[in-house]
């Protein structure tokens, strides 16, 4: 009896639905927790341990993992207890050749946390773990005692960093711009040669003029180079003498040192400050060491720009398609067929869209543009190669069904009475659409756009063949005319994760980067969606009558 | 633009003077049949609706009175498989002729619906909507003048004059319905069709709408569908009784409610069915 009433009231079913929600929440929370906890390795200053295993083996490093090792030796059944081994990141790739080692717990002779152990972040070969022995100027040890080193180190690093940034800026901005101009001038010559008949009077005169312009720019170029060389010379005077745990000494130029810190001495506030600096670096700096260190700014920029261009492309196209399908087309078997096709398009694997994008946008459209507008540059492609515009087009195609379907739903949900009110006032169908229907449907249309953006920012596969690269030298938006360079290749957070996590030579060391990039990608998707949701809720307040 | 309308109006009225001697007939329906696909909804309707009078359409649900009303401004065009036969002349011109612009027609024939349907815009923009899309002058003075006049005609001005820029959706049900009336009046139609305009309102709001209808007939020809027989007797000059798609009886309201010709009308009015 009791069981029957339980079934009748549907209590079991309520429990079941609650269970479904619970599982979903646990899964999402677990995912976020995993990514978040793993990504702390990227920015948290872990303490350094000095481990002595035997007389000839001493290392300094950071503890990463501990795991149980089951006894493989069957004969020794009395000692079934497994022992523990530790994974230590020892850095110093230039000296040891690898980043991580495993050490058995029982082999460790002593384990200490020396106060003066330092982490030296470098522009190449990863971190150095060891001790700062002295600061050398022109090869002569200038500051030797730890007190003097403490006093002068940060000041000198700032000084050299300024020099490094100056050199980098010159290389990027001035030389970049000059290269661009020289390339442009070369193209002008090619264009001129291509379009003009050789025996014309002022042919050689014109060519000479263009050539001398290039010559002038090349002189400028060598001047800038000599300027950076002299800067480098100044910076190269400063070196650091470092010592590893086993007493090996090495001298590295301070130009390669990003920062030096002593995690074992850091107070809580110093650690917080350090975390802040690392997050800042992540968000606003360029990557180093084949993307496994440094920041991901170009990838963030590329991702957001890609999604923006995609939105600009997909929104009008999707909306007008849906308007035609819902408002103008005669509802019959053909429209039904189109609708089914559109819905199915949403289920096509994204790589298929990528292949289409490569074949149609890149090779066909881009190739045709090259033949018509840039014949002098061939066989070097200008638009006939992957770029951010073609990738955006591909993603727009990929997300088109989402926008069409939700726009259609929004249009269908507008009460008939509103349409009739407008028509009865002598409005034409178009006036009714434009003045009444579309404004009321905007929240629903934006719902579609939000879904489209969420999908687009997570896609990687179609991008890999339509323009994403591991390292793009220039952003698709810069200060060189015409500012938007939509033909350029770009970096993307999703591809960055794949590349760093699976394609880099040192996957283990790059894992924190993979997790922190994943976290960032999730953050950006949330941010993009949140802004669209805020806009939508404002609009919804305005057009309350809509169901969306 | 306004001048153009005048020319058109005069052309139409000239025509009407030729074709009919009775100038006070606004709408003349002759031998009209109406079909939804294969089903016949209205059969052989003949009716003359007089200028500046209120004509009430009564009858039980599904008798075709709303269909009839909606065919007067061709709102039934929106229904895919609707078909009409016969003619409906307004000012002597058959509105189902090929050369009639349905948009122009609907500007002349305003319509109020059963459920108030203001646009999700401000009160001002609701009333100004017909003006903005209808090719009227769009300068601020003209618009605000017309909006004020229409709202006053609809007896709503005093209630909303301080919040013209608020959303129309914040008004009460009765106010919303009067706003819809003001919206229809703003483009100065000749005929106003009302499809049970007070059926969703409370008694006080209903009384206001009824007073309004009596005032409006000074300037407009009004055709109203109502379920409420008392209402029909209170406000209308003529009454048409529809039953099962046929016009059973049409005549002066006073006569119809006291001494109906048809047995069916009498049964309906006295409440024996319906």
Overview of the molecule:
The complex is a heterodimer of chains A (548) and B (274). Chain A is of the alpha+beta class. Chain A has a domain at 297-542: MetI-like fold (Orthogonal Bundle), CATH 1.10.3720.10. Chain A contains 15 helices and 13 strands. In chain A, strands 6, 7, 8, 9, 10 and 11 form a 6-stranded antiparallel β-sheet that branches. In chain A, strand 7 and strand 8 (140-143) form a beta hairpin. In chain A, helix 7 packs antiparallel against helix 12. The longest helix of chain A has 50 residues, at 146-195. Chain A is flat, with a radius of gyration of 31 Å. The model of chain A has no long low-confidence stretch (mean pLDDT 85). Chain B is α/β, with parallel strands linked by helices. The longest helix of chain B is centred in the first third of the chain and has 18 residues, at 2-19. In chain B, 46% of the residues are buried. Chain B is globular, with a radius of gyration of 19 Å. The chains are: A alpha+beta (548), B alpha/beta (274). Chain A binds chain B through residues 415, 417-418, 420-428, 431, 435-436, 439-440, 542-546, and chain B through 73, 75, 78, 103-104, 106-107, 110-111, 113, 115, 117-120, 129-130, 132-134, 167, 169, 180, 183-184, 187.
Walk me through the topology.
The complex is a heterodimer of chains A (548) and B (274).
Chain A: H1 2-9, H2 11-43, E1 49-54, E2 57-69, E3 83-89, H3 93-96, E4 100-104, E5 110-112, E6 118-122, E7 128-137, E8 140-143, H4 146-195, H5 203-236, E9 238-243, E10 249-253, E11 257-261, H6 268-284, E12 287-288, E13 293-294, H7 297-328, H8 333-345, H9 350-373, H10 388-412, H11 416-424, H12 429-458, H13 461-464, H14 493-503, H15 507-542
Antiparallel strand pairs in A: 1-2, 1-5, 2-3, 3-4, 6-7, 6-11, 7-8, 7-9, 9-10, 12-13
Helix pairs in contact in A: 2-15, 4-5, 7-10, 7-12, 8-10, 9-10, 10-12, 11-12, 12-15, 14-15
Chain B: H1 2-19, E1 25-36, E2 39-50, E3 54-58, H2 65-72, E4 82-90, E5 93-94, H3 102-108, E6 109-112, H4 123-133, H5 140-153, H6 157-160, H7 173-186, E7 191-195, H8 203-216, E8 221-225, H9 229-235, E9 238-243, E10 246-252, H10 253-258, H11 263-269
Helix pairs in contact in B: 4-5, 4-7, 5-7, 7-8
